[in-house]
């Protein structure tokens, strides 16, 4: 939990503490060398620690590749010095590591093993006490305060426009935390006539209950694809953050389903394009069903097959081989 920092500013504020934690971990593992050190995600913290431990003769592996395919590609050189094995969750990630001589293994994504595409929408609606009849649109404006502040008003404006044309359409929003629940309750006071149900947590269940999803870019887009729900992806961030990020990005897509499909499988509305009218225009054909929704679902089936590889067992097998080779 102490390593959970994001963005450009928070890591700088926490830098002394993070360096202190890393120094203690290095001392601990150098004094009591393990058969293998496995760093899980948190690349800016773990890769330096892995490099130091590897220099001390401790085999190292890293689970969850940094997004070197999207930005800061030069990190691959650091990774090559830090790890004996990189375990990747996405199939397209292996190429860049092989090109730079980094031992790599694709293990599949644990979410694909965990999420069933056969969740009963009606049963989940009853469980969550959502509207049993009519179409349901799930709105997921993100889990962070800034995401909800920037996206939720736009999502609710789009919902109002849609409800004007589809009076039987209802909406559900999962709140990621108590703080987000309070934030969303405040925003909803401006929409007293909109049939919106706030659900504490349970974002996966809310998506399964819905016919279509409007959501922020992030891991939730992969969950929606694995559940099998047509979606529109939208995202906004602060102007300065976007200027910095847009210069670093090396991929034409932001949404994971599009990155995995290698094409514009789902609509993406990023920054200035993320407007309520644009969201409505993208959602209409999906809510109506038909070819657009079917095309997405077909693409999601391919993604699910590609990612379902028994990730835990594959990772354990690869790590056991690494330990055996070093013994």
Shape, per Cα inertia axes: elongated
The CATH topology of the largest domain is given as: Rossmann fold
Mean pLDDT, to the nearest integer, reads 90
Spatial strand arrangement across the major sheet: 7-6-5-8-9-10
Count of DSSP strands: 10
Q: In CATH terms, what is the architecture of the largest domain?
A: 3-Layer(aba) Sandwich
Computed CA radius of gyration, to the nearest angstrom: 22 Å
Largest sheet: 6 strands, parallel
Any low-confidence stretches, pLDDT <50, length ≥5? 1-9
Distance between the termini: 33 Å
Tell me what you see in this structure.
- The chain has 327 residues and is α/β, with parallel strands linked by helices.
- It folds into 2 domains: 10-108 and 309-326, Rossmann fold (3-Layer(aba) Sandwich); 121-307, 3-Layer(aba) Sandwich (Rossmann fold), CATH 3.40.50.2000.
- The protein contains 16 helices and 10 strands.
- The chain has helices spanning 10-13, 15-31, 43-55, 75-82, 94-99, 110-114, 121-128, 145-165, 178-188, 203-209, 219-227, 239-248, 256-261, 276-287, 291-307, 311-326; strands at 37-40, 60-63, 85-88, 104-106, 136-140, 170-175, 196-200, 212-216, 231-235, 268-270.
- β1 (37-40), α3 (43-55) and β2 (60-63) form a beta-alpha-beta unit.
- The longest helix is centred in the middle third of the chain and has 21 residues, at 145-165.
Write a short abstract of this structure.
By secondary structure, this protein is α/β, with parallel strands linked by helices.
Layout of helices and strands:
Elements: H1 10-13, H2 15-31, E1 37-40, H3 43-55, E2 60-63, H4 75-82, E3 85-88, H5 94-99, E4 104-106, H6 110-114, H7 121-128, E5 136-140, H8 145-165, E6 170-175, H9 178-188, E7 196-200, H10 203-209, E8 212-216, H11 219-227, E9 231-235, H12 239-248, H13 256-261, E10 268-270, H14 276-287, H15 291-307, H16 311-326
Parallel strand pairs: 1-2, 2-3, 3-4, 5-6, 5-8, 6-7, 8-9, 9-10
Helix pairs in contact: 2-3, 3-4, 7-10, 8-9, 8-14, 10-11
